[in-house]
Predict the 3D structure of the following.
Amino acid sequence: MDIVQELLRGSRRALARAITAVENDYEEAGSILQDIYPFTGRAHVIGITGPPGAGKSTLTDKLAKEYRGQGKTVGIVAVDPTSPFFGGAILGDRIRMNELTMDPGVFLRSMGTRGSLGGLARKTVEVVKLMDAFGKDIIFIETVGVGQSEVDVIKAADTTVVVLVPGLGDDIQAIKAGILEIGDIFVINKADRDGVERLNTELEMMLDLNPEKTLWRPVVKRTVASRGEGLVELLEALENHRTFLVTSGEQQRRRSARTKNELLVLLNEHISKKVLEKITVGGELDSFVERLENHQQTPYAIVNTILAEMLR
Ligand SMILES: Nc1nc2c(ncn2[C@@H]2O[C@H](COP(=O)(O)OP(=O)(O)O)[C@@H](O)[C@H]2O)c(=O)[nH]1
Ligand SMILES: [Mg+2]
């Protein structure tokens, strides 16, 4: 049987193989993604981001168990080289994660050891699609929120949870602005520590000042992930956000913007590849460069020539 058929029938092995194909850009990846495409778009994709050590993995683990308790199936994509999901874990983390991976209703995949972060964003979207087609109800993307690439990764999510911890000094200033803008739900984890009130106040003030969030005012929740405290409230906030997305039409809007973006990225990649292939084969590229160096032509004129040739 074909790998996609197997995947759609619930074979975890087929899912694992498909993910490997996507991760490594194997030849078959394109056709797999094409065949599963009609079966995607059902899952609630939840992004979990925040600084290293904030408790993202602990929180993801606890949330996954809550959803499992409700009978929902869960996929987890950990996009974090330092994630304790695999390797480099302290013993406690490893035991905790093993418990989760032994549940056949949970599929966990760690990414980020291969390829550039840029390619990683696209691959994350694709892995999420595979898990979605496989039939996962909830898909978590865990990623460290430090730069633009991570923000790009999290764009694949329907709901973005930003995990923060109290006591980092100038709390809000320490956090990248880009991360604050993408948060639908803010979690103050390690609420068992000092500085919770201050961080909470700062967050609320900042959210009040943000004019962009008119439809959904992000909410702030407190958790002690390691003890499972605050999970019920967080789960409720996640459900509320999902309901908001669906009823307001925001889900549709976000997904169509994302679909458009994906199409453009794909188109871009393929056009660039085709053009590059064409102009390198006959050594044209080198002669273009030579003409530039000799000031015989401008780059604009060359690009126009190449495009005119290609589109003929
Ligand atoms: N005190 C306290 N420790 C926590 C809490 N949540 C997680 N931790 C601990 O913080 C450390 C980092 O957690 P982890 O989930 O790996 O963070 P990540 O890097 O954001 O994924 C681990 O040792 C956790 O046990 C919490 O609410 N309170
Ligand atoms: Mg982690």
Observations:
- The pocket of magnesium ion (ligand 2) is lined by residues 56-57, 80, 83-84, 142 (CB under 6 Å).
- Strands lie at 44-50, 74-79, 106-111, 138-144, 159-164, 185-188, 219-222.
- The mean pLDDT is 86.
